[in-house]
Amino acid sequence: MSQQEGQSTDQQIITAEDVVSYLKQHPDFFQRQPALLGALEIPHQNGGVTSLIERQVVMLREQNGKLQNEIRSLLHVARDNHKLSDNMHRLALELLECEDHDDVIASLYESLREHFNIEQVVVLLPHGETAETHETFEEMMRDSVPFCGQLEEEQRKSLFGEGVEDGASVALLPLGEFGNQGLVALGSSDPQQYHHHMGTHFLDQLSELVSRALQHCERN
Asked: What pTM was estimated for this model as a whole?
């Protein structure tokens, strides 16, 4: 009796984790054990059974479907980026032809509305009729980076009037350091169009492009 107990104690207990680890280290195991592969069965959710190979086929189809969706998403992003690049190039050429601030603002309005499909566009300069409204947003421009998100009702109406409703998202682009040259405001009825976590590479480029165009007009 004591001898049997000693033998039982020495036996190694193999866990499910041990089996998984072994199969990962020997992926060709079932190729070398075809009889075992044929004997394996995995229950279906509906109560039936399926072979391991059939289950693998199902998993591969699912993975393939996910990959196809990712590829389509990447192609969609690539097309959007290509279109965006073309529009930025077109805008840059138009701004090069501008002779004064009014030309810059007019070209900017037309391009953003027609080519970039921006719903609402407002340009505030630190002088003239828009000077007072520009001062309202100076604090938000202190970091010289675009602001993306939602504004308080009073701020929103001071920019867009009744053109942008409650819940709309906006992007504020400072022109020059701390917005000392002005401010471009973009508005969208989509609450998620402009948000705090979005990338601002395009907005940064647009801000710099317009700033340089205004500086060029001042020197001429």
From this structure: 0.64
